[in-house]
Design goal:
eight-stranded antiparallel β-sheet, six-stranded mixed β-sheet, alpha+beta, 28% strand, 817 residues, disordered N terminus
Length: 817
Amino acid sequence: MKKIVLSVAALILFAAQLNAQAKKAPAYPLINHNTYFSIWSFSDTLNAQPTKHWTGKDQSLLGLIKVDGTTYRFLGKETPVYKTVLPASDEQAYQCKYTETAPAGSWESIKYDDSNWITGAAPFTDDKEHAKTLWTSKDIWLRRSFTLNDLNIDKLVLKLYHDDNIEVYLNGEKIYSVTGWTSDFKLIPLKDKFKDKLKAGDNVLAIHCANTSGGSWLDAGLLNEVKAPPTEVLLAKQKSVEINATQTIYNFECVGVNLEVTFTSPLLMNDLAVFSRPVSYITYKVISNDGKNHNVKVLFGASTAIAVNSPSQEVGTKKYDAQALSVLKAGTIAQPVLQKKGDDLRIDWGYMYVAVPKSVNELQYVTGQDSSVSSFATGKIKSTNKTGKQRVLNTVLNFGSVGTASKEKFIELGYDDLFSVQYFGQNLKPWWKLSGATVETELNTAATQYAAVMKKCDSFNKSVYAAAQIAGGKNYADLCVLAYRQSISAHQLLKSPQGDLLFLSKENFSNGSINTVDVTYPSAPLYLLYNPKLLEGMLNGIFYYCEGKKWAHNFAAHDLGTYPLANGQTYDENMPVEESGNMIILTAAIVKAEGNAGYAKKHWETLTKWAAYLSINGVDPGNQLCTDDFAGHLARNANLSVKAIVALGAYADLADKLGKKNIANNYRNFAISSAAKWQNLADAGDHYSLVFGNKDTWSQKYNLIWDKVLGLHLFPPAVYKKEINYYLTKQNAFGLPLDSRKTYTKSDWILWTAALADNPKDFKTLIDPVYKFATETPSRVPLSDWHETTNGKMIGFQARSVVGGYFMKLLENKWVK
């Protein structure tokens, strides 16, 4: 008998391929392409809640399976159906009485005389772009009279958009009050006793809102949450869930049949045709679990909420054939292309598509949101293609008789956004349209390539996991898997009018900026590993802007605007050292990844200007913001100084690669001397300080990692070691705090800091609490990168691209080891 000897690396690779997935996440990626086409499950069980956009708004996907006449729900949950009682301004323009002077008497009562109050239209806000009535004072009192004839209301719901503190009265009785604000309409179910306050005839909704800080906004309406008809639908039992780089896979058990559902968004960075195609696959595999044959049908329902910003927007639908596919299409009637900008927004232009091969005995139809489940469960289908609100695109797959041999079918979900981004005044189509492709050709190509793409995804999933596990262990590999699709789908791929690739990010759940440099910076490791051209695409727009007449500074810009309008920086303060350092370091990283200095040569004049700025202002920086701007301004920031020094060393390295030896020597010597000076300025005994001159402070020096991975050797390894040893004494249950000021942290920076460790034990000790956060956080949203280390709760930010920084250890493993 021959003995087979495997290397340790081979054994690890083999083990990883057997278990190449994570099993727990704060939210589970389902459909992931770009910041608008991004659908998630926010619960561990797929059928426990409606599926949602990353912002948390419902974008319902429904999945039902009928086995021998018994219906089970395995995907999503029925979302409430609302009918308008009193429209807010997003549905219908309205006027009401208001005053900004505290009224005397019972101003909230139905009989109060408001004839001396001013008449104004909603919304009331200080936002001049959206205000129908400008409100800039601290307080506003509002009275809205309305007539009601139909009192047949199942559940009264207050529809409210307020900034800040609010108290609401209906016919004189307080029905709601809260301290705080919303950034959009919130639906608030009211106690049953309050619907009895409504009268046939005249009614009054009275509101007081106080603007305590920041912006102001007030708009309100009333809804009826219609009671859903009873249906005999059971819950399929979820047996498992697995997450890998490009897929999320669920397994369910029903009486007589097992069902496997796979969501595949084939974000393969080495194939931009597939990568940019806005089409995901939902694959269903069924098999008998009792040895008997069973008759099986599966329903996939996609809500038109995927194509609207607000449920109040009207949509049109269409059913048609496209070559080998049967297709359902939906989009808003208004089609306000690129008319909205900001953070907490969904797309309301372009069209969503559900497609299925005509050979699979499909049935497609459109229903109202209130009848999708019942129509499938009862078999009484009432299809409609009329214009309306809250529609569902339904597809039924008939598997026929299913026995012990599994059967597999798939559905495609796609989106054509027509134009994705406005780039310095010009509306740009998405990358996949550059060759003249239509959404129909993309859907058909995706269907034809299904088997090949699934095979590529499987291979890629295994290779990513195996490499990450070798670099940092299983928990690290799981974190990389959770980060992969999230990071990519916070971008959009385009080509600029100048012919450059653009890969523009949205600063999700933050301020909505487009192409923020200090969001690109932490995201970079993922793209340096798998396609550095995409990182070029994150830098190209910034170079174009800073090299043009619109930017008059000798340091780099912060952003290109507010998504999706990239017409110039909109962030209200510059970060000169931060962004200039970021751009130089990332250019050097691209050059290293690509093996030639062509990208640096193209932008050498600009890089030189930024390097000169850093040489004067970066080593001991003044009172300015860095990427951790939520922590406030900071002078003499030691970590920001590291960034400037490393950037200057990187600039010297680029000069050397371009044959500019004198420049290289001068900047190299300056960087080395600055690193020595830094060690004295930041010295705090057993660690280095947060700010120069204050030994009682400390901070993560995550910027040091580029000295290591770029091989600059500006700082001795003893600096890394001293910091790592100190960090190990400062950890909390859910991670290492960002610095000595607060106990919150940024998980992307922890992953960078951990990569400074010179041994696997220290690395694991630092990243295991991040894994604990990712798998145990009570904040059930797509990965937050800013969380509290004492309890694992999100502080802010979610679904951001910066988790691409989790791949830093993989990059360090590839470039250094």
